[in-house]
Amino acid sequence: MNAQSDIMGAYLEKIVALLEEIRSEPAERLHQVAKLLAGHIAQDKLVYLYGPGGHSNMNATEIFFRAGGLMHISAILDEGTLISNGALRSMAVERTPGYGKLVIQDNRLAPGDVLIIANAYGINTACIDAALEAKERGVTTIAVTSVGHAEATPKNHYARHPSGLNLYEICDYYLDSKVKQGDAALKIDGIEPLMGSTSTFANAFLLHSLSMTTAAYLGEMGIEVPVWRSGNAPGGDEWNNQFIERFKGRVRWL
What is the predicted pLDDT for the residue at 202? Predict the structure, then answer.
């Protein structure tokens, strides 16, 4: 495409097509995970969410302390792979053996806990080590990741965990984000690499859909679900303040 083309429109078509592809998947897997989370939250237990790796860190914040988000979501906001600490440093830490294991240990996840690991590609050392350590500890694990991207990446690729394992293979459950290899989706004339990443849209769509479906199951159980409201809207602070003491101290990064 050139500068005179409707680049915004073409990008929109790519994103919409990806979201439609996710939506066309049989709904059983999403509902299975939502029922699991609903049963967990019904016992007033937290659901942990970790997004190891550069931009995957956004997954951890996407539905945490967010308007319309479940209050029982406890994001693991480990600083090791944050791009704000240096993009190249983030990538190096993401590929460092044992780092993901350390994060799980530091957060003291234990049998009976539930952990969502949201990583677009599902191959890197940090996410694989985190999943393996969580499983070792008896934690129920859920991957939000792209099966196709993982399968298309050679087993000997330098970004991979030394085992060559894929995140979706390790976790007890997975939701497929359908992100294509390389993530970027749009060809611009005169530019060799594709542009316009898609994974943020896909992961956010899946995570919010999971959160709302979980809430619907809780509603069917007759359980009133604490949901955050925007503090920038009228009445938001007043609503949220009713619940702060209930979660302060339990949710590490609240």
Answer: 97
